[in-house]
Specification:
6 helices, mainly alpha, two-stranded parallel ribbon, Arc Repressor Mutant, subunit A
């Protein structure tokens, strides 16, 4: 049985809210990303939820695009452990993860082995 999908109005409202500047929200997302240890990975959605903003996975992507050089961006993946970047960026992400000891099953990270489990005190709203 699948999860119920949020209604379209709620999704649009979340997208609008995600576009508004919020230093506290963005800092919580950055803290959640920084808490992922070497050799572990998390999905965009898990990072957003750990920061206290479920359904803000697109904002996680935007923050990584704008500040990826100061965050461990390679440790954040798409749902199911798939690298969502394209071309050379995807190859670089895979290479960085492999250098950290992360193993793959085909194109996906071996999530049962490398999935980071966020603790309540990591990331989150302050």
């Amino acid at each position: 049985m699948s999860r119920p999908k949020p209604d379209a109005k709620l999704l649009r409202r979340i997208q609008r809210e995600g576009m508004k500047p919020s230093d506290a929200r963005d800092a919580a997302i950055r803290r959640a990303i920084r808490s992922i240890p070497k050799g572990k990975v998390a999905t965009y959605g898990q990072v957003a939820a750990a920061a206290g903003y479920p359904l803000y996975h697109r904002l996680v992507v935007r923050i990584l695009r704008s500040e990826g050089d100061v965050l461990p961006w390679q440790r954040v993946l798409g749902a199911g452990g798939r690298i969502k970047l394209r071309g050379t960026a995807a190859m670089e992400q895979r290479m960085r993860l492999e250098l950290e000891g992360v193993t793959f099953r085909g194109r996906r990270v071996d999530l049962p082995r490398h999935q980071h489990v966020f603790r309540p005190w990591e990331g989150g709203k302050s």
